[in-house]
Amino acid sequence: MLRVIAVVTCLASVLGCGSSGGSVLSNAGPLVDNTKWVPTDDGEALFGPRPADAVCDTTVVDCPQYPWPEGECVTFDPGSPCVTAYVPECLDTFTVMAVYTRMPNPSEPLCNWLTLEQPSLRAIRAGDRVEIRTFHAILTAPALGEARMMFAVGDELALDYSVPIPWPQSEFPRATWTAQEDYPAGTQLLFHVDNHGSNEYMLIEARVLEPTENTDL
Predict the structure, then answer these.
(1) Does residue 104 contact residue 182 with C-beta atoms inside 8 Å?
(2) In whole angstroms, how far apart are CA 14 and each of 49, 77, 87, 99, 134?
């Protein structure tokens, strides 16, 4: 179920990008804790109405680590039978929020529409830049379609990514969003995935950047 070996090296190189500026007044740092996401029905105004065939079975099956340890990520052995729609997963030194969309039986959808929420860890000020880094594996499906990953701060989309299914390679979609107004700590954050097929997606991180930080390196 889990295809993490090839991802770890890529994550190390992707997350190594950028350099800190060290501004005294900066509120830079992590915006999310990937162990704290919970499902929500909010976000329809941003992501569109929930389709009639949308489903997300959050029952966890054959996962000896469940319940997930509070505040910690989970490591799966190769070939693990664990079936879960979403999980805070350990990849090398990173904790990612992983979303899985298909049961072991490919005819059974597991989760083709999921929105997760949590309150922001820190305030965002007008003019602050927020970077969102994500990942998806090779995307497969029995029929043509489209997958989306979206990330919202309050009522604003900070990441709006779509890709056709099937897609022949893994990708690391990322976005840098500039806040047009202040958002206090505790502002609702939403991470949304909709998809069909046997696929996996990850939110790697969302963070407020240092004013001088260059994300193009």
Answers:
(1) no
(2) 33, 24, 21, 19, 10
Please state the rounded mean pLDDT for residues 190-215: 89
pLDDT in tens, 157-167: 999 999 998 89
The span from the CA of 105 to the CA of 63, in Å, is: 17
Residue 174, H or E segment? strand 174-178
CB atoms within 10 A of CB 82: 18
In the numeric block, which tokens belong to residue 172? Answer: 């690391």
Q: For residue 197, is it left (φ>0), alpha (ψ between -120 and 50) or beta?
A: left
Question: What average pLDDT does range 193-211 have in this prediction?
Answer: 92
Place of tokens 């390679």: 169
Cα–Cα distance between 15 and 215 in angstroms, integer? 10
- With a cut of 70, say whether residue 148 has pLDDT above it: yes
Omega before 166 within 30 of 0, i.e. cis: yes
b/e per residue, 103-141, with b = 16+ CB within 10 A?
beeeeebbbbbbbbbbebbbbbeeebbbbbbbbbbebeb
Q: What are 28-70's pLDDT values in tens digits?
A: 999 999 999 999 999 999 999 999 989 999 999 999 999 999 9
